[in-house]
Structure formats: C-alpha cells, structure tokens
Amino acid sequence: MRFHILPTAADIHEQVADQFCKLLSEQPFSKLGLATGSTPIGIYTSLVRRFRAGEVSFRNATSFNLDEYVGISEDHPESYHSYMDSKLFQHIDLAPGSSYLPNGNATDLQEECSRYDNLLRDAGRIDLQLVGIGHNGHIGFNEPGRSLRSGTHLVKLDESTRQANARFFDRIEDVPTQALTMGMDTILKARTVLLVVTGADKAATVHRALTGPIETECPASLLQLHPDLHVYMDVEAGLHF
Ligand code: GLP
C-alpha cells in the first residue's frame, strides 16, 4: 500500500491523471477501470485537458465502469452513462464501443450481470482501476453487509448511500433504490488500484478501511489485500494517518 497525502484535491487530480497518461503511453491497449461520484471529476477534467493538448490518446484503450443505477434511463442526467459521457467520453478519442458500463435497464438484470462479467473476463485483468469510497465504506456499490459478492451483481442501496447521493437529484424519492455493481473480486484482480479520497468527511472512513480489520461490513477494507494499492488523499482526508 502506498500513501500519497497531497495538499489539495487539485494536486490529486493531476497526479492520478499522470498515472493514466503514463500507462497509456507505455501500454496504449490498456484496460481502464473507471469510477463515478464527485471525487473523480477533477481527474477526468485533467485527462480531457491533456487529451486536447495532445499529451494522451485513448484510441486503443478500453474502459469498464464500476457501476450503474437501476431504474433510471441511460440518458437521465444522473445516470452513470450520462456522467461518463459528459465528463469524459464525449471529449476524448476512446473508440466507439470500447467503453462499457453495466446496463441498469436490462429486462433481465441477472443476465446483464453475467454479460458484464463475461465482457470483463474476455478482456482480461483491468490494468488501472480507479475507485472512490462511500462514507459507509462502500466501493463501487458494494455495500457493507454480512457477505460480499465476487462478481457483478444487483444491490439494494443503503439508505445512507441514497441520502449521500440525494444531492444530485431533485428529491430523495428520485434516488434509485438499486444498482448493478462490479464485485470485489473483479476490483481486487486489477493490476493496480488507485483509491482517491478527499475531504474531512471521509477521514474516519478511510482510516478505518485501511488500518482496521478486513471485514465485509467495510468493503473498502478488502483493498488492504491488494498488492499494488495507491491511496491518494488530500490533507483533510488523510488527517488520521
Ligand atoms: C457513489 C459511487 C461510488 C463512489 C461513492 C462516493 O455511490 N457508486 O463509486 O465512490 O459514491 O462518491 P463521492 O465521490 O461523490 O463522495
């Protein structure tokens, strides 16, 4: 586990974007694991700027996202499809058909989970996986509980997660109650995992996750088992380290 505690979130955005650019210049055919939420937005902004400056190309890369809500359309402004399009995909040269997200509108959600797992399996290991952390220790939408699932699966979102994400929706009733998420096994199999955490409100969560017991009640604690985990925190999030 390597810790990078940086003065500001902007410093994190640049250093994490550096890691993506370095990988893509060395291995243009890389498989990228992408995340949503407010934390990675600055990273995507930086990647778009670098692409426009001709410093990086995604032409030969493939991307897989961690998760998607169930029950809102792909073109809903808060769907993760819309998020990825507006923050990154529509601004870069990732080839059409090379970016994958689970389809939260599939008629058969179990079949959709198998389809996504098959895509991931056929692609092979993700080279660089970006993850954020929820206040309750979730990764992707792997919520705390008595057990965790290894592959892509349907989850019922915690009330605390819905409350946390309510800021993106008009009303709490509009926040989906379910989602599809990549499982912990897929995340842990990535060659390198970048955990990005900013803000004082996540300080206790990330400290518990990375120094406390490895337990399903804190899914992010399983990241302690990863052989190449890089943790990027601003000073506020890194308060207890
Ligand atoms: C969401 C996403 C996660 C993300 C987390 C934290 O629920 N599914 O991938 O890490 O919330 O989001 P934020 O960065 O907005 O705090």
Q: In one word, what is the shape?
A: globular
Total number of beta strands: 10
Share in β-strands:
15-25%
Distance linking N and C termini? 13 Å
Radius of gyration from the alpha-carbon trace, in angstroms: 17 Å
Q: What is the CATH architecture assignment?
A: 3-Layer(aba) Sandwich
Annotation field: number of helices: 7
Give every kind of bound small molecule, once each.
2-amino-2-deoxy-6-O-phosphono-alpha-D-glucopyranose
Mean pLDDT over the residues: 97
Pick out the low-confidence regions: none
Keywords: Carbohydrate metabolism, Hydrolase
Pfam families: Glucosamine_iso
Enzyme class: hydrolase
GO molecular function, one term: glucosamine-6-phosphate deaminase activity
Structure notes:
The protein is α/β, with parallel strands linked by helices and 241 residues long. It is 31% helix and 18% strand. The protein has helices spanning 9-26, 41-52, 80-87, 109-123, 159-165, 184-189, 203-211, and strands spanning 2-6, 31-34, 62-65, 67-70, 99-100, 128-131, 153-156, 178-181, 192-197, 229-234. A 7-stranded parallel β-sheet has the order 1-10-9-6-2-3-5, with helices on both faces. A 3-stranded antiparallel β-sheet has the order 4-8-7, with helices on one face. The chain is globular and about 45 Å long. 2-amino-2-deoxy-6-O-phosphono-alpha-D-glucopyranose binds next to α5.
How would you briefly describe this protein structure?
The chain has 241 residues and is an alpha/beta fold. Helices cover 31% and strands 18% of the residues.
